[in-house]
Amino acid sequence: MPRAACWTIAIGLCLLMVSDYWPTCPMVSLLHRSCPTCGISRALRLLASGEVTSSLRLQPLALPAAAIFVATCAVELATISAGSTPWQLLGRARGRLMLISAATVCALLIALWLLRCCGYCGGLVGPRGLNTEASKRTDALRSLLLFVDH
After folding, report:
1. Most buried of 35, 36, 127, 133 (most Cβ within 10 A)?
2. What angle do CA 132, 31, 139 make, to 5 degrees?
3. pTM higher than 0.85, yes or no?
4. DSSP states of 24-58 as a string?
5. pLDDT tens sequence across 48-78
6. Phi and psi at residue 125, in whole multiples of 5°?
């Protein structure tokens, strides 16, 4: 039961982050840098309000990442409630497929983040959205490599 309670709390926190009540991204607040998942919460909010184009422009991988997260949570909770351990799920084809899907989306998020750090794909996603100026390409690369504030 404690494992199910932890998952419930984690899902609740994720739902809170997507809602309008979450003040700001914890990563940006702590590190003052965008992370590979930067913009997912805002993109999901835009998608929920029907602004599909804006959502895809902000973070095109928000929907696949959210879908894999929800599917993983559902299967994990079903596995726990059936009395199995999460590690036993990896022994099944469905568990391995979910792991491969999650790893693929993570790799794509990191690749997109690296491209944006170099100024491509609209630049980095910050607290105000995409940085679209082409001149920020050099500053973003310098920031990534040297961690120098611009």
Report:
1. 36
2. 35
3. no
4. S-HHHHHHSS--TTTTHHHHHHHHHTT-HHHHHHH
5. 888 888 888 888 998 898 888 888 878 877 7
6. -90, 120
